[in-house]
């Protein structure tokens, strides 16, 4: 063996040792970032129908490929069937609360509530960057439960006020959602405009998601839908500049009062998660779940021909509607059965079996190596 070969062999051995060391370390490694995806009303039947409608194959979504899966109970403190307020509060704070409450719990005294610290606030307090993106209104209960504390989800003036008066850190760094006209009305009551109020708090404010691209802090409020992938790519590019890490919550509405629209959103969010999985680092915990399920069911359909065509043909029949037909039917609204929680990345292995939705708060916290405060 020449000296060169010998050196090369030693180097190769050292590299293998290093690699195996890295690999075993990677398993135990803590997460630097957490991305929480909420399919709002995206229960198992909705994922099932949404996936088949999109691909004419079962279990064909990216979500279906996530390695750790559990079933999360969504019941609230006072109801078997939750609303988004109590459902998201449980995930963000680890506490069950009454329906319509937002990251606040009843104190026992009539009408009084106490604020409960959210995972986003834990992140802000520790200097991480944070983002909230939704295709619903930014003050709606699900996004609000990441940063606001109110006893009644309809209190949008107070939710907008708290958006710019954070209890920890400097508040949500990147906000993208709808409700532009609502923001104007709410800030008018404080004798200001969203433009002035967000600028004073250090945000770039606008209607175009492209403004996120060169702003460390941005608030994009719109009244119209937007393309999710460019928006989320720009958001992650900004948040990832923080060496301490980031927390991003993305909510996509999957209510299926209009089944085609809601199931289209399943595909849209799934493509977004697939794309983000390609750009977010391996030190990122991915968690997908729903705040509650919904009364949609696959009720029929023949394999071997596109489901979308079968649904359209069915709905075109006299006396048949888009929610009452033999292919995809909808009964009522929110429902009480467990929803899927699917995870990948550091800390994802804690997602398995049946558990209460409050467990997801613990999963995120322990992935970051943080202790819950009492
Ligand atoms: Zn909801």
UniProtKB/TrEMBL annotation:
<feature type="signal peptide">
    <location>
        <begin position="1"/>
        <end position="28"/>
    </location>
</feature>
<feature type="binding site">
    <location>
        <position position="255"/>
    </location>
    <ligand>
        <name>Zn(2+)</name>
    </ligand>
</feature>
<keyword id="KW-0862">Zinc</keyword>
<dbReference type="GO" id="GO:0046872">
    <property type="term" value="F:metal ion binding"/>
</dbReference>
<dbReference type="InterPro" id="IPR001952">
    <property type="entry name" value="Alkaline_phosphatase"/>
</dbReference>
<feature type="binding site">
    <location>
        <position position="334"/>
    </location>
    <ligand>
        <name>Zn(2+)</name>
    </ligand>
</feature>
<feature type="binding site">
    <location>
        <position position="291"/>
    </location>
    <ligand>
        <name>Zn(2+)</name>
    </ligand>
</feature>
<dbReference type="Pfam" id="PF00245">
    <property type="entry name" value="Alk_phosphatase"/>
</dbReference>
<keyword id="KW-0597">Phosphoprotein</keyword>
<protein>
    <submittedName>
        <fullName>Alkaline phosphatase</fullName>
    </submittedName>
</protein>
<dbReference type="InterPro" id="IPR017850">
    <property type="entry name" value="Alkaline_phosphatase_core_sf"/>
</dbReference>
<dbReference type="GO" id="GO:0004035">
    <property type="term" value="F:alkaline phosphatase activity"/>
</dbReference>
<feature type="binding site">
    <location>
        <position position="142"/>
    </location>
    <ligand>
        <name>Mg(2+)</name>
    </ligand>
</feature>
<feature type="binding site">
    <location>
        <position position="251"/>
    </location>
    <ligand>
        <name>Mg(2+)</name>
    </ligand>
</feature>
<comment type="similarity">
    <text>Belongs to the alkaline phosphatase family.</text>
</comment>
<keyword id="KW-0479">Metal-binding</keyword>
<feature type="binding site">
    <location>
        <position position="40"/>
    </location>
    <ligand>
        <name>Mg(2+)</name>
    </ligand>
</feature>
<keyword id="KW-0614">Plasmid</keyword>
<feature type="binding site">
    <location>
        <position position="292"/>
    </location>
    <ligand>
        <name>Zn(2+)</name>
    </ligand>
</feature>
<feature type="binding site">
    <location>
        <position position="40"/>
    </location>
    <ligand>
        <name>Zn(2+)</name>
    </ligand>
</feature>
<keyword id="KW-0460">Magnesium</keyword>
<keyword id="KW-0732">Signal</keyword>
<feature type="active site" description="Phosphoserine intermediate">
    <location>
        <position position="84"/>
    </location>
</feature>
<feature type="binding site">
    <location>
        <position position="140"/>
    </location>
    <ligand>
        <name>Mg(2+)</name>
    </ligand>
</feature>
């Amino acid at each position: 063996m020449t000296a060169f070969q010998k050196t090369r062999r030693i180097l190769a051995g050292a590299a293998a040792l290093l690699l195996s060391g890295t690999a075993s370390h990677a398993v135990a490694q803590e997460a630097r970032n957490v991305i929480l995806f909420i399919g709002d009303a995206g229960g198992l039947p909705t994922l099932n129908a949404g996936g088949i409608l999109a691909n004419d194959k079962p279990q064909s979504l990216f979500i279906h490929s996530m390695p750790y899966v559990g079933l999360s109970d969504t019941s609230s403190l006072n109801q078997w069937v939750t609303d988004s307020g109590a459902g998201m509060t449980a995930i963000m704070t680890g506490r069950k609360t009454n329906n319509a409450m937002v990251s606040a719990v009843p104190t026992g005294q009539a009408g009084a509530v106490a604020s409960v610290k959210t995972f986003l606030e834990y992140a802000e307090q520790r200097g991480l960057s944070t983002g909230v993106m939704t295709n619903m209104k930014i003050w709606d209960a699900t996004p609000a439960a990441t940063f606001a504390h109110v006893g009644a989800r309809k209190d949008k003036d107070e939710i907008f006020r708290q958006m710019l008066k954070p209890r920890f850190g400097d508040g949500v760094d990147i906000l993208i959602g709808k409700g532009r006209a609502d923001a104007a009305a709410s800030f008018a009551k404080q004798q200001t405009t969203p433009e002035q109020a967000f600028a004073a708090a250090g945000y770039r404010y606008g209607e175009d998601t492209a403004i996120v691209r060169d702003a460390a802090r941005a608030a994009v409020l719109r009244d119209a839908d937007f393309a999710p992938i460019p928006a989320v790519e720009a958001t992650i590019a900004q948040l990832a500049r923080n060496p301490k890490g980031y927390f991003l919550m993305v909510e996509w509405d999957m209510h299926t009062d209009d089944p085609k629209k809601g199931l289209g959103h399943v595909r849209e969010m799934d493509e977004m998660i697939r794309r983000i999985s390609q750009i977010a680092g391996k030190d990122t915990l991915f968690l997908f779940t729903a705040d509650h399920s919904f009364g949609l069911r696959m009720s029929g359909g023949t394999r071997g021909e596109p489901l979308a065509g079968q649904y359209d043909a069915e709905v075109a029949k006299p006396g048949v509607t888009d929610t009452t037909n033999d292919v995809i039917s909808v009964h009522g609204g929110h429902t009480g059965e467990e929803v899927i929680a699917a995870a990948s990345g550091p800390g994802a292995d804690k997602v398995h079996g049946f558990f209460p939705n409050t467990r997801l708060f613990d999963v995120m916290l322990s992935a970051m190596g943080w202790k819950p405060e009492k």
